[in-house]
Amino acid sequence: MKRLLKDWRIILLVIALLTAFYYISPSSGEGIVVQSVSTNSPFYGKLTPGESLSWANEVDLAEPADFYQFDNFTGVFRFKHSGQLDLTNIDSPGLGVTVNKKPTSQISLGMDLVGGVRVLLQPVEENVSTEMIMQAISTLETRINVYGLRESRIQPITDIEGNSYIQIEMAGGSLLEIEDLLEQEGNFEAKIPISIEYKDNKGTFSVAGQEYSVELIGEGKVKIMEQILEINDTFSLNSMEFEHINTSKNMTVLAATVFTGDDIRSVCMVNQPGICDSAVFPRGEGYRFQFTVFVSEEGAQKFADITKGMKSRIDPNTGESYLDGQLVLFLDENTITTLSISSDLAGRVMTNPQVTGYRPTYDEAKAEKLTLQSILTSGALPIDLETVKVDQVSPTLGQEFINSAFKAAGIAALAIALVIFIRYRKIKLVIPMVLWAGFELVLILGGSAAIGHTLDLASIAGIIAALGTGIDVQIMIIDEILLGTKEKTYTLKQQIKKAFFIVFSAATTTIAAMIPLMLIGIGVMRGFAIVTAMGILLGVFISRPAFGKFAEKLLEKDVEKE
Amino acid sequence: MEDKKTEKSDTNYRKLLIIPIILLIFSLGYLYVATTGPGLERDIDLKGGTQISIEFESSINGDSIKSILAEFEPKIKTGRSINGFTVIIEVESSVNTSEVMQKLENSGYSFENYSVQTMGPILGESFFKQSQYALAFAFVFMAIVIFIIFRKLLPSFYVVLCASADIIETLAFSQILGIKLSLASFSALLLLVGYSVDTDILLTTRLLKAGGDVKENMKNALKTGLTMSATTLTVLLSLYFISTSGIIQQIASVLIIGLVLDITNTWLLNAPLIRWYIEKKVNK
Lengths: 562, 284
What we know:
By secondary structure, chain A is α+β, with helices and mostly antiparallel strands. In chain A, 40% of the residues lie in helices and 29% in strands. The radius of gyration of chain A is 33 Å and the shape is elongated. Helices cover 70% and strands 11% of the residues of chain B. Chain B is elongated, with a radius of gyration of 24 Å.
């Protein structure tokens, strides 16, 4: 026994099993984890997806509901994330964070096992560029963030014939929610806030170089051009809409709507030198993005009227000069983001302005560019998409699939044990064989977690297929050993070597058969192919050699006896 | 005298070949008629359409569901599942599935467990084409591996022949038994390409590489091979009867058919051929 534990095959198996457990990292499943944080959330920059949340404002967080009860909370919010205490100020109700129950392990389960919906969309037009696909994905993601739709995984897919698709997967979602996502288009508006400072309750602002006076006449009440305006009231000036945003003792903020969706004639999506820009390139330590927007004459005029004579300031970080007022972008009256306006644009009528920005990494710059482009197009999809495939599974059904698979596996294990016992009449053979099948299961699950493979129904079928080959191999090894005892033509070592020749040959043919399966049908059965191939590889290189060694020791006495 | 007698009984085994040959010819004939005529029965993921599968706790009358959903022109199939009753509703892929389910609920049916699968016809056709290529590629890969392993023309050819017979017969018999071709059943066929050669490799290796009596070696190989097939069949049968998932049932049923046919082909086709081959060599 001691010598067995020193054998490299056994040591390798033990190490592999421990590694698999590390990757699966089973846990009690108590507590919640952050799933997503929207950009306008008070937690933005504080919480990151995947982090655990354990406590908030004197409440222990065990269920997602424990956290969502603070949805109407305003004020100072104290919380513990990843074991550390932190706080944030919530000005207006709304957390902007989605959370999930902590998973019981690192194994991720596919949509068909947890319930939800998955659709495959294909562009109606042929030969759509990758850029357009990415733009469409970004638009869909923007919609999810803006409208608070259910978190989805959206990814581009190309099949072996070169056709492009977009796949949307919503865990726990329904088809109606996907339809919502596909139809949702918004109203785009861009506004520039104007601050008016009071001296003796009087102040001024200028539009198109002309000064207008403002008078503070009461709490939250101002008088502009003989009109009395309360907060949220609007008025027109120079064919532009102004809104009274806020008024304090010494200041009033107005917002001028300079562009609406109608003013955005087009947004440059594909870089065409000399016509329009849409690019990301390295600048300094990071990346700069830029793209051209074509706006209407009227929009350009309104922009010029508001920015004319506006004060500017120097950004201490970049050293560039920007106007005091920023361009705030809205989609369906939700603030999405703000853009700084370069000082040299002040008062100019520009129908093809550039939107530029800077981000530390290429991916962030590209993502920000795509987001801005989709907001400017009112969240409209740049290409027409057609639904070509839908899969929907109710959550309870997915759970039933898992339960029935477990039940089937348990019964299969018992049945195998019986068959083996009938054949060999040795309990001491039955136990290690079933045990080894268990080892292979752990190795496959660990392997799946390690490569980040999502287990779906097809993968479960693959696990069973791989375990089946494992049992076959064990039988071959045992028979070769027992055969050696009868014939005495070969030593035990040679006999096992012969068994492994068969084992490796059989494994190679099965893996060869699985390779084409990984490529077809946009990878519907990829899970099956990957898990089967992985199970067989882990088997022939790790667990089955160890079984050979173990069986050799186990049957040594029987061999000597005969 | 004595010698002649044994020789006669020894060639008897060659007569066994007739069974797998009949099976193969029958299957090829069936597939030829099916493919030139109505075509192979395909599930919706390979031809397009919509399938709504709903589980009910009590027995459901398929005809009444059919009349409720008449406007959608459905095909209805009902069946028992381990936890209750399953109704499978097939409609055109253009039908709005939410409306179908709404209509059922409005008519007083209540259900919690359901799955919906919709597949565009063009995409389905494309998947079907890809599946055929995949099967062809898998087969060629397997054949190359077999020739590399054995490096002997005839024994390798016998193994490949046996695998081809497995695939062709499994395809024919699963069609006859009403198992439609789908991505899942294609995957099972591919797995069978790999799985079925296990026992052939075992047989060929045992006979070619072991010394001693051919018949004795064959008997040992048969014992091992049948144990292997028995355990695998046990697993597949428990999967087929216990699992509630369509994908897993399809894979399991195709593999069960395949393994049963593989037992026939390995021991009645490959085994006599390889024995013949060895005896001829010895006689030379």
